[in-house]
Amino acid sequence: MKKIYLKVEAALPAIIFSLIFIVMMINIITRELSSNALDWPIELSRYALVWLTFLGSVYLFRTDQHIRVDAFWNYLRRKINPTTITIIEIIKLSVIIFFSGFFSYYGYIFSERLKFFSSPSLNISQSYLYMIVPISGVFITLITLFKIYKTLKKGSE
């Protein structure tokens, strides 16, 4: 199950990016052939880009490839004992859980409020666009809980 999740998590951003590319190429071709640009490709690409951003952030968070400044943290690791480093790491991960829980809760409320508003070209509910916020928040919360478990397990050794 975990292998399937990891493959889907890595493949989904690539699929969405490919979708954006194909849809925008269709728009360019139709604009060049008929001198009329379609409305729906731009809107679909905008929605897909939002989803790509949030799904990509989940992947980058899980693999620790997101942008961060490590100089201070690396300095602390050399100067402070491992138990204190573990405590600081747990506090840091707890703050991440707080913010991802905040994102999940209020993202869900916001997307629920927009379910009766539809997009102009695609005529689909706006809540589909914003539903990625609580989805990514839940995934980041779960990943963070797993990181806390690994940190506590490593710290007790």
TrEMBL record:
<comment type="subunit">
    <text>The complex comprises the extracytoplasmic solute receptor protein and the two transmembrane proteins.</text>
</comment>
<dbReference type="InterPro" id="IPR055348">
    <property type="entry name" value="DctQ"/>
</dbReference>
<keyword id="KW-0472">Membrane</keyword>
<feature type="transmembrane region" description="Helical">
    <location>
        <begin position="83"/>
        <end position="108"/>
    </location>
</feature>
<comment type="function">
    <text>Part of the tripartite ATP-independent periplasmic (TRAP) transport system.</text>
</comment>
<dbReference type="Pfam" id="PF04290">
    <property type="entry name" value="DctQ"/>
</dbReference>
<keyword id="KW-0997">Cell inner membrane</keyword>
<protein>
    <recommendedName>
        <fullName>TRAP transporter small permease protein</fullName>
    </recommendedName>
</protein>
<feature type="transmembrane region" description="Helical">
    <location>
        <begin position="12"/>
        <end position="29"/>
    </location>
</feature>
<keyword id="KW-0812">Transmembrane</keyword>
<feature type="domain" description="Tripartite ATP-independent periplasmic transporters DctQ component">
    <location>
        <begin position="20"/>
        <end position="152"/>
    </location>
</feature>
<keyword id="KW-0813">Transport</keyword>
<dbReference type="InterPro" id="IPR007387">
    <property type="entry name" value="TRAP_DctQ"/>
</dbReference>
<feature type="transmembrane region" description="Helical">
    <location>
        <begin position="128"/>
        <end position="149"/>
    </location>
</feature>
<feature type="transmembrane region" description="Helical">
    <location>
        <begin position="44"/>
        <end position="62"/>
    </location>
</feature>
<keyword id="KW-1133">Transmembrane helix</keyword>
<keyword id="KW-1003">Cell membrane</keyword>
<comment type="similarity">
    <text>Belongs to the TRAP transporter small permease family.</text>
</comment>
